[in-house]
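SEQUENCE-TO-STRUCTURE ENTRY
===========================

Backbone structure tokens: a row of integers, each naming the local backbone shape at its residue.

Task: work out the structure tokens from the sequence, keeping to the layout shown below.
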Amino acid sequence: MQETRRAILRAIDSGPVSGPDLADRLGISRAAVWKHVEALREDGFEIGSGEDGYRLDSVPEFGGAAVEFGLNAPYTIEYHDTHTSTNERARELATEGAENVVVLADEQTGGRGRLDRRWASPSGGIWLSVLLRPDVPATHAPAFTLAAAVATARAVRAVGGEASIKWPNDVLVGGDKIAGILTEMEGEADRISWLVVGIGLNANVDPPDLPAQRATSLRAVVGDVNRRGVTQSLLEALADLTTDLDEILPAWRELSGTLGRRVRIETADSTVTGEAVDVRFPGALVVETEEGQTEVTTGDCEHLRGTSGTSDSG
């Protein structure tokens, strides 16, 4: 959001302020104040005006300016009503030198998850990608996936959904998938050039519109939510976690639905079956097998029931 418009919103949020007072505070003309107010109205902000000045009556439910307003995180928002892929757009911004940008869309037409699987992204969801340039080695990148899972699970819990995390990148409610995460990066061994954390959260959408098996949504779990508030909650939690990587694993363990479960993990060249007993930095799952403990850094994880090997969740 343009800084002058942000300042106007802050000023009129606490009560009516006259045009001349706003002009004096901001060092601009009264005509410029009017133009900025009109632009904010076009963005969906309801701004009343009377003898006592301008006042903020309501904030739009969603959109870039709406999410930026009141956001306690160091991100700017680039919003699209529809986009092929927010991760794709974030990668484009990375090549232009941008950082700390959130690409947010109401709908994606070409979203994807791990292993190039299609991710359905109908209107009403929260589809976003965060472009970061963390000053850490490339080997630390998996920690950002865990941080995104924690942030998403916390945001879901804040509106009443009993979210848990399934290693490595899914958020579940009642065993059904409500969100997924895809992290991409570019860099050398000793440093990350850029990192994009893509998060897809099924918010105000109907499960039948989601082709994935055992998928759910916030609408199905708790009813329609204020997507602005959920998005802000998610981004603020992510910002806090990624400023101190030591906080990520304890937070992930607390929300994990995988630890203590029997799992079967399909890796590129093997299958690992056993009990998930821990997660180690930057994101390896520790599995107790019949042959002893092994660390798995990547793979498709399936929760199993008991000792039969029967699947408990998709």
